Each structure stands twice: as C-alpha cells, then as structure tokens.
C-alpha cells in the first residue's frame, strides 16, 4: 500500500505527533513548517503566502505525479498570536494571524484538491480546528475568526466534492486541549490580553491537557473510519 500523508506544522506539538505516528504505521510523510526538523520536512513559512504558495504548488504537483492508494492532508499549523484585542495590536500582526490561520490552509486545501483530484485513491482532507471555531473568546478574536471561517470553508469543500468521481473527503476535527507550546503561550499571556487565562492555568494544574501523542492516535483512528465528507469529529471528550 502506497500511503502519503501531508502535514502542516509538524515540527512540534500535535503535528509532530502525527508525523511520528504515521511514519510508524508505514505512511510516506511530508511535513511543512519553518523549523523543518525532520528528514521529510519542507522548510516553508506558511504565513508568507507570496513565497510559500509556489513552493507548496510545486511540491504537491511532484507528489501527485506518483501513484498512491491513500492520501491524507492535515491542515494543522496555526498560531494564537497576537493574543489580545486587535485594536491594541500592530496591523501587520493582525493580518499575519489570518495569513497563517485562514489564508494558508485555504490555499493548501485548494492545491491539494487541484493536484490530487484525478487520483482514485482514498483521499482525506482533515482540518485541525478548535472549540474556538464555535464560540468567541475575549483575546482570541483572530484565532476564533480563522477557525470558524476555515471550518465552514471545509464544509463547503465537502459539498463541492460530493459530486466528484474521486472525491476528497473533507472533515473538521476538534482535538481538545493538549499539552503543547500553544498552551504554554496561552498561560504566559497577561490577564489584560486574555481574561480567561486563569482557567487555562487550572486545566494544566488539574491534568486536563492531553499528550499530543495520545490525541494523534485518537484522531488518526477516527479519520480511518470516515466514509463521507462534511462531518465534525470532536475528540475532546475521548479519554
Ligand atoms: N494545543 C491545544 O490545546 C489546542 C486546542 C485546540 C486546537 N488546537 C489546534 O491544534 C493544532 C496544533 O496545535 P499545537 O498545540 O500542536 O500547536 P504548536 O505546538 O504551537 O505547534 C504549531 C505548529 O504550527 C507550525 N507553524 C506555526 N507558524 C507557522 C508558519 N508561519 N509556517 C509554517 N508552520 C507554522 C509550527 O511550526 P514552526 O514554528 O516550525 O513553523 C508548529 O509545528 C492547531 O491547529 C491548533 O489550533 C490546539
């Protein structure tokens, strides 16, 4: 079985756990990040779209020229920064958040569909979302906007794909809270920028943050069972 997995933001956290688990299961993995720590990494700043777009286009074209039995693309790279009301943040940081969290995964998904549409392989596009897609958080307005927008974009891709001869199954996934650098960044934020910060200190103190390795195994198990696009997989309650 020739199985290809494309993972954005696989240098650490949940993405790195996906890379390790998928490689252990025999998948060929290609990972996209700035740190690019793996032999399978493509070094790219997904927030710098003018430069990263052609890199992604060329890499996906190269991979799509080969035969595959199964192809998985995981839209995982994201940032909370800048945390705090946007009125207090530099415009470049405000727009930079949306470049990485919304525009980059929209572009990645478009290129994935473009290059792999003709493949008869089982094809899955998984957007790693968040509870922040479904409700607002003071201080996370950009992250909330991007996650909500991307979830609905992915739902729309699923509808578009339903009529294709070889559809891409597009789904959203809520991983729940995990013990990663993203959570450390939340706890390091002052209450002025993030009024709910104490709750996140409490989640860590209560041992509620799951290891990303645990979550990656749960998510990959759920993705293996997907038979149609458009769904929202909530792994937050899996314990
Ligand atoms: N942690 C949680 O509790 C939690 C909860 C709900 C949802 N999520 C979601 O789960 C996913 C993974 O989160 P995580 O906690 O594992 O985050 P993380 O530890 O902060 O890792 C983020 C990943 O994104 C990559 N990334 C960030 N900026 C990038 C850029 N400009 N270009 C390319 N890659 C970039 C990072 O790689 P480089 O820095 O090397 O570029 C890194 O590999 C995210 O979508 C997040 O929104 C997390």
UniProtKB/TrEMBL annotation:
Keyword Cytoplasm attributed: yes
Source taxon at top rank: Bacteria
Pfam families: adh_short
Originating species: Derxia gummosa DSM 723
Protein name, per record: SDR family NAD(P)-dependent oxidoreductase
SUPFAM superfamilies: NAD(P)-binding Rossmann-fold domains (SSF51735)
Gene Ontology CC terms: cytoplasm
Keywords: Cytoplasm, NADP, Oxidoreductase
A GO molecular function held by the record: sepiapterin reductase (NADP+) activity
UniProt keyword NADP, yes or no: yes
Gene Ontology BP annotations: tetrahydrobiopterin biosynthetic process
Compartments reported by the entry: Cytoplasm
InterPro entries: Biopterin_syn/organic_redct, NAD(P)-bd_dom_sf, SDR_fam
